Every structure is written in C-alpha cells, then in structure tokens.
Amino acid sequence: MKTQVAIIGAGPSGLLLGQLLHHQGIDTVILERRTPEYVLGRIRAGVLEQGMVDLLREAKASERMDREGHVHEGVYLAYNNQMHRVDFKKYAKGQTVMVYGQTEVTQDLMDARKREGGVSIYEAEDVQLHDIYSDKPRVTFVKDGQKVELECDYIAGCDGFHGVSRQTAPKDKIKTFERVYPFGWLGILSETPPVY
User: Fold this and answer.
1) What is the Cα–Cα distance from 157 to 133, expressed in whole angstroms?
2) What's the CATH number of domain 5-173, 3.50.50.60, 3.30.470.30, 3.40.50.10490, 2.70.150.10?
3) From the first residue on, what is the mean pLDDT of each consecutive set of 10 residues in the chain (196 residues)?
4) Are 49 and 88 in contact (CB under 8 A)?
5) Kind of pairing, strands 5-8 and 154-157?
6) DSSP string spanning 144-155?
C-alpha cells in the first residue's frame, strides 16, 4: 500500500487532519487499532472553541453541528446574590463557543470521510512505525491476520500520549506544545430558574 500521509489514530484529531488534507488534494490512510464503535464510545468534552468550529466547517464536516449545536455567547457567574454576565463576543473579538459533543464531532468526521471516499482501517493490530526520520517512512500493521506495509511520505501521530507514535519517537526528539488555561470550567446542565 502507498499513501502520502499515514495518520495513526481515528479520533477527532486524526479524522480532522485526514479531512483537511483530503480537501488540499493530499492522499491519506488512517489507521486505528480499535473498532469505530469503540472510538465513538469514548465520551469526552462537549464545548468547541471558535477555532475548532471553523476547522470543522473547512473540513466540510459541520452540517449537523451547525444545525444541532448550541452557540454559546457568554456565561453568567453568580456572586453575592447577583448575576454577572461574561460576554464572550465582547471580550473575545466576536468569537463564541459551540456546545456540541466530541462524540458527535467524531461521528460527523467519520461520516464525511466515508462519504468522500477516504481510507480508514479499523482494528489495525501491531502498528509499528519504521524509518520515521528518513525520506521513506513506512508503517506496518496486521489486519485480519495479514501483515501489511504502508509506504508514505509522512507519518502523523494522532494516537494520543500513550500511542505508538509517541513511543516510537526518541525522547530527545519530542517537543511538546500545549496551551495551558489559567482557569477551569465546571459545567452543569439544570432546568433551574435563575437566581436573582
């Protein structure tokens, strides 16, 4: 098998990358060690920042999100028996957040990939990355008892902190980039009248 980019992991990151590259005319194959049902069963966050919403639209995987998601333009904080509104649009240069579950995002990306003919191989066992710092990287895996070699130009490791991609890369070559927020949010959904 051959492709331009081998993507390891069919979670939201790998699927989104696959869609964005597809729309740039770049061929990809996504490898996932679990079943689609298992991937969809991992319940995660449910609020998307503006950047993610924009990327889903660019990836042509936003139709259901735009129809069913809830745009959230701000929050109220209760303090000293008073409600104080934090207006996201005002303080974030017009940006908002979208309340839409990660499971739904993953399903939408799976559907878009299938609709557009992208190749996703689920239940790929014993995935191994080879020659990752060469001009000819490759990935081997076992599917239905058969060993398969995937030749590629690039490998994109989208399989998380404990995945094979991070385990394969030498520790002195790993650079971590992260955005740390100076706060945390706890969201509770309740049909309770507001406190005034």
Assistant:
1) 13
2) 3.50.50.60
3) 98 97 98 96 86 97 97 88 91 93 96 98 98 96 98 96 93 87 67 74
4) no
5) parallel
6) TTEEEEEE-SEE
